[in-house]
Write the structure tokens for this entry.
Amino acid sequence: MIIKSNSVKETVTAGAELAKRLKPGMLVALTGIFGAGKTYFIKGIAKGLGVKNWQRSVTSPSFVLMNIHQGREIRLYHIDVHRLDKGSDFYGLGAEDALGDGVVAVEWAEKIKFRRKPDVTVEIRHKSAGKRVIEISGMKSQCLKKSAK
Amino acid sequence: MSNKHFICLGIESSCDETACAVVRDGKEVLANLVSSQTDLHSIYGGVVPEIACRAHEEVIIPMIDRALEQSGLALSDITAAAVTNTPGLIGALLVGISAAKAVSFVYNIPLIGINHIYSHLYAANLHFDAVEYPAIGFVISGGHTSLFYSTSPTEHKLIGATQDDAAGEAFDKAAKIMKLPYPGGPAIEKTALTGNPKAVRFPRSLLKNGSLDFSFSGIKTAVLYHCKGMNGALEGPDVYKESREDLAASFQEAVVDTLAAKLEMAVRRYNPKGIIIGGGVAANKRLREKINLLGSRLALKVYIPPIALCTDNAAVTAGLAYHYWRENKMADMSLDAVPLNMDVSLG
């Protein structure tokens, strides 16, 4: 399904809506270039999962590679592989263990060859200043549409 | 000697670097080694991989050996083992913690857990004779952009932090858009030297309501749009008309302006005696210049340590540990890796 976002706030809302459908063990692959809003979309996922103080605690893990956040019930593993050169390093992060007990959201997913197909893919494109197109696939679009209006 | 002095082995492995140091009494650096700058090939006998947690495992023991060798001491001379246990990449942190625990257990010496961000602020204490508190502590690195109200080497209250990208990350990403090499900080600084900082007016995001938080995602997008056009792809053609030098200088000026503006806001709000700077971005000369100017304008002491102590190292880890030891704040074998900085949840 395709969501049009006119602001950072709407991107966060789209992430929060998706979070309602996420279950432990799910892998979410995000793609989109600099400034598309991948981190803000994941802030939304954190918000939806009930991560405390998500506004400030969810920041870009480009440097540190992975941040772990505790949601109400589900843990969120926020990974950014922009700095990694090869897919194998992704598994060196312990991401595979993470998939057991939480939701794994990966920024710059196009850089990785996953060992299994992501459950959800989120592609964010710049449209014009402040506007983005968010394309979500893998989830049943019907149930997403309802909640995202 | 070890009876009179506190000789601390410090280990830092929170991100890319494996670092080991030996520091006496929180002041005197007897050894300070960082894996990327140390020739480990001769002892390890292979290529040292850069990022994987495995890399820390492979070099940590040789690094400890080298640090001890440089200090002229043996493990039996060490009074305590200090290690970064938060924040950072969990697998990477665990490697350092395990090594420190082993040393602590075998030699029956105290184990001390160190917050990596606080240790960045300790660099000033290693370099300057006496640091006056209270101070505004400012950690500016690839992973952090955090303002603190600091009342001692161990007491820091978080008063502002980035909501998205860290300042160092903004440099890296802007460099990538401008086709400059990684790491972006030094590359942009060098390119900016001959550029006009007023060529392009990039946004200085100060957020609303006098917030001391930062946001660097807006300037990243602005650089992208300016260089590649509104719908531009990273691989696409450049559309900017200025020279790359002008672009780099303008970008650097915008980031430095933002950092300096927030620092000034914090200083005016908290009325400290001084400013303590730490983190890799503090290597930037334009930033140093601006902060020094701010300091003299407001008659404040400015503590900016030398570059080798600003970037990730373990001398600051071992140095800061002295103060926890004096305050009797030791860890035990239950010390765990805490990937996220717990401070952010208080904000």
